[in-house]
C-alpha cells in the first residue's frame, strides 16, 4: 500500500446536489427509466457528493433515493448503483454480513475486505457493523470461522480501534529487524509453524512497517516471506497471509488478480466484480487497471466487455473504470 494511490472517480467540480437530485428524479419519474442519466451522474460523483444528493433528494421530494433506485432498477446493475450510494464502510459491512449469513461462509470475501484495508478503514467498518447489525463484527466472525484463520481476522478487527495497522506512525527499522527475526524463528527455523507469531505481526503492524519487516526477512532467510508462507501454511490462512503480504508489496496487483479470476473461467463472479470496482474506484482503481494490463497483457475494460456482463450493468462498470 504505497502512499500514492490512483483513483478513477474523484467527484466533479461545481457540484450541485439539488440539480443532480432533480435529474435523478426526472430519470425515474413517469413511464420508463433513463438508466443512462443515472449512470452518468452516479459513476462520476464522489461518495461524499452522492450522500449530499441523497439528502437533497429526501429534502426536496420526501423520498428515499436508494429505495427509489431499487424500485426502478434490477439485477447486477442495481447492485452497482446501490454499492455506489451507500457510504463505503456501510457497503462493506453489507458484503461482510452477506458472506457470513446463510449456509456456509465465503472466506474469500472476508479476506478480500479485511486483509487489504488500513487501520482507519477497518475501524470504520467495525463501528458501522455494530450499528447496522446490532452485534460486533468480531463476534459474528467468530461464529463463522475457526482455528488460526479466525484468530488472525479477530486480531485484525479487534485491534483496529486500538492502533493495529497504524498507518500514521512512522516506521521503525530496529523493530522491523526484530519482527523479521521473530517470523523467521516462528517459521523456517523450527519444525512446524508458530502461527501465533505470524498472526500478531501480520495483523498488527502498519503496511509501511510490514514492508520493512519483509525486506529484513529476506536478508535473514534468503527467501521472501511469500515463499515461506506458500511452503509452510495452507488453506484460508495461507490465502489471508498472502493477501496481506501482496497488498503490502503491491495492492494493485493483488486486486487485479482478484478481478482476473472473477472475469475468467466458467461464469463471472459478479459479486467480486461489483465489490472491487465500486469499493476501489475512489482509492486506487486506476492503479489496479495499470497492473491488470501489465500482468495480463489485456485491459480490464476489454475483459469486462468481452465477458458475460451486458447492458446497463456493463455500461456502469466501464464508466467507473474511467478513460482507458
Automatic annotation (TrEMBL):
Q: Does the keyword Lyase apply?
A: no
Task: Report keywords, A-Z.
Answer: Annexin, Calcium, Calcium/phospholipid-binding, Repeat
SUPFAM superfamilies referenced in this protein's UniProt entry, alphabetically: Annexin (SSF47874)
Cellular component per GO? cytoplasm; nucleus; plasma membrane; vesicle membrane
Example GO molecular function: phosphatidylserine binding
InterPro entries attached here?
Annexin, Annexin_repeat, Annexin_repeat_CS, Annexin_sf
Recorded hits in Pfam families, A to Z, give: Annexin
Q: What is known of its domains?
A: A pair of annexin repeats may form one binding site for calcium and phospholipid.
Family note: Belongs to the annexin family.
Q: What is the name attached to this protein's record? A: Annexin
Instruction: Look up and give the organism this protein is from.
Output: Papilio xuthus
The primary gene name is LOC106119697
Amino acid at each position: 500500500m504505497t502512499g500514492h494511490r490512483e483513483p478513477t472517480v474523484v467527484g466533479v467540480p461545481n457540484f450541485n446536489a439539488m440539480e443532480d437530485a432533480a435529474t435523478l428524479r426526472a430519470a425515474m419519474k413517469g413511464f420508463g427509466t433513463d438508466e443512462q442519466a443515472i449512470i452518468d451522474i452516479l459513476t462520476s460523483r464522489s461518495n461524499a457528493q452522492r450522500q449530499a444528493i441523497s439528502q437533497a433528494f429526501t429534502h426536496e421530494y420526501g423520498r428515499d433515493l436508494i429505495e427509489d433506485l431499487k424500485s426502478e432498477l434490477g439485477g447486477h446493475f442495481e447492485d452497482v448503483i446501490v454499492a455506489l450510494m451507500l457510504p463505503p464502510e456501510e457497503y462493506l459491512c453489507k458484503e461482510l454480513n452477506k458472506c457470513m449469513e446463510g449456509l456456509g461462509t465465503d472466506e474469500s470475501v472476508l479476506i478480500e475486505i479485511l486483509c487489504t484495508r488500513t487501520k482507519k478503514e477497518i475501524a470504520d467498518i467495525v463501528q458501522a457493523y455494530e450499528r447496522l447489525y446490532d452485534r460486533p463484527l468480531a463476534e459474528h466472525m467468530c461464529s463463522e470461522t475457526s482455528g488460526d484463520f479466525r484468530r488472525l481476522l479477530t486480531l485484525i478487527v479487534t485491534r483496529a480501534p486500538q492502533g493495529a495497522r497504524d498507518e500514521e506512525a512512522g516506521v521503525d527499522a530496529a523493530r522491523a529487524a526484530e519482527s523479521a527475526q521473530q517470523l523467521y524463528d516462528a517459521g523456517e527455523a523450527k519444525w512446524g509453524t508458530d502461527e501465533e507469531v505470524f498472526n500478531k505481526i501480520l495483523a498488527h503492524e502498519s503496511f509501511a512497517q510490514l514492508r520493512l519487516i519483509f525486506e529484513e526477512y529476506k536478508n535473514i532467510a534468503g527467501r521472501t516471506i511469500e515463499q515461506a508462507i506458500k511452503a509452510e501454511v495452507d488453506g484460508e490462512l495461507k490465502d489471508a497471509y498472502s493477501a496481506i503480504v501482496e497488498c503490502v508489496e503491491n495492492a494493485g496487483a493483488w486486486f487485479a488478480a482478484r478481478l482476473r479470476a472473477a472475469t475468467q473461467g466458467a461464469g463471472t463472479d459478479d459479486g467480486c466484480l461489483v465489490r472491487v470496482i465500486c469499493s476501489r474506484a475512489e482509492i486506487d482503481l486506476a492503479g489496479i487497471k495499470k497492473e491488470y494490463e501489465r500482468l495480463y497483457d489485456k485491459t480490464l475494460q476489454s475483459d469486462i466487455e468481452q465477458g458475460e456482463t451486458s447492458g446497463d450493468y456493463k455500461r456502469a462498470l466501464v464508466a467507473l473504470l474511467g478513460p482507458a
